[in-house]
Each structure stands twice: as C-alpha cells, then as structure tokens.
Write a structure and sequence with these properties.
Blueprint: E1 18-21, E2 24-26, H1 28-41, H2 50-53, E3 59-62, E4 69-78, E5 83-89, E6 109-115, E7 117-126, E8 129-132, E9 136-139, E10 143-146, E11 151-157, E12 163-168, E13 176-178, E14 185-187, H3 194-201
Antiparallel strand pairs: 1-2, 3-4, 4-5, 5-12, 6-10, 6-12, 7-8, 7-9, 7-11, 13-14
Length: 206
C-alpha cells in the first residue's frame, strides 16, 4: 500500500520548479491545483505535500506508437480496493496510428479534471454491434465516470496543461481492445519494447 501523504506541509506558492525527468517539470501552479483537487475529492488522504508531489515516484508512460511519453502518473494511494493517481497529460491516448483502437479498463474509475480539459470518444457494445457515442469534452472542475464496460480513447488534450485526478476501484480481469467495425474483442498484452521504452523515459526510477 502506498502510505498516507505528508500532512505537515501546507500549500505554498514559493517553491522552485523541480525537474523530475526529461519532459516532466513540476511547479507551484501545478502543485496548487493538484493539492486543491485532493483536498476537495479525497480529504481523507490528508493534504498533498510539495514533497510528495515532486517526489521521484512519477512514471512517464510511453505511447505504443511513438515511444514518447503521452502522460505522467503519480500514485498517491494503492490498496486492494482503490488506487488514486494524478495524471499529467502530454498527448492523446490513441493506441493505433491508423485509426480508432478503443480500450476498456480492468476497473471502474472517476476522473476529476484538475486543469484544462480533454476530449474522449466512447464506444459501447450493444447486441453484437459497436456504437460510437458522441465525442465529449471534459473541462476543469468536471468529473468523468467510466465503467469497465466502456471502451474509449482520449483523442485530444491540452499538452502539458491537462491534469486529472483518477480514483480507480478494484481491478478485474479481462480488459483489452474492441474493433469498432466488427466488435471483435482482443485481450490486452504488453506492447513490444514497452518496458525498454518505459525505462528510457524514467531515468529517475533506476
């Protein structure tokens, strides 16, 4: 389990920017918004300290197509029934450069938009057909609720500004991808070179 956050450090606006890894620098503005989001949605975790926010626990996540980081994740809490993460987005989460490749997740989750916005496309499997729902823009202050049955893609972000707080329920087996044309489900597997790309993006974790 990831421990409780340090509750001794109040929100401050006098901290110097901290470079965690190439492409990931954290500053007071980001911290203030993240701390406010945690205080509003997860007060039981205690105040988010500057030391926790700028720790080396961040992971940069590689895009399956380009190998470049499309987001950075910081896990604030993890147990058998709940995981809490802060996500800072650099690019959309589109996992096939040729067309839509909607995926679901092994858990239900809520995504609170802490800064800027993102656009999401959703697909639902109904009676053997795959139905594309309208693209939805989720803006700062909104909460996006997604169940395990929903297949989606994040198609647009505000690079370097979009930041979300993610609360995930207990993990379940069976997540993967659905073909938007014929509804074929493909279980998720580790993308080629994923671990190598992740290692290259995260020298601070070695």
């Amino acid at each position: 389990m990831v421990g409780r956050m340090n509750s001794t450090s109040p929100i401050s606006t006098t901290n110097s920017p901290v470079r965690i890894a190439p492409g990931l620098t954290l500053d007071d503005k980001l911290y203030t918004m993240a701390a406010a989001g945690v205080a509003e949605h997860l007060p039981e975790l205690g105040p988010l300290s500057w030391e926790t926010f700028t720790s080396n626990e961040w992971w940069l996540v590689p895009d399956e197509q380009t190998g470049e980081a499309y987001k950075a994740e910081l896990t604030l809490f993890k147990s058998a029934t709940r995981t809490v993460k802060i996500n800072r987005w650099f690019a959309a989460d589109r996992r096939d450069g040729r067309g839509p490749k909607p995926h679901n997740h092994p858990w239900d989750f809520h995504s609170m938009i802490l800064d800027s916005s993102y656009v999401e496309s959703r697909w639902l499997a109904r009676d053997g057909d795959v139905v594309l729902e309208a693209d939805v823009e989720h803006r700062i202050g909104e909460v996006n609720k997604i169940g395990r049955e929903v297949f989606h893609e994040v198609t647009e972000v505000d690079p370097g500004r979009t930041m979300t707080l993610m609360i995930c329920g207990p993990g379940m087996a069976g997540w993967g991808y659905i073909d938007p044309d014929d509804g074929t489900f493909t279980p998720a597997t580790m993308p080629p070179r994923f671990l190598e790309l992740q290692r290259d993006l995260n020298p601070h974790r070695q």
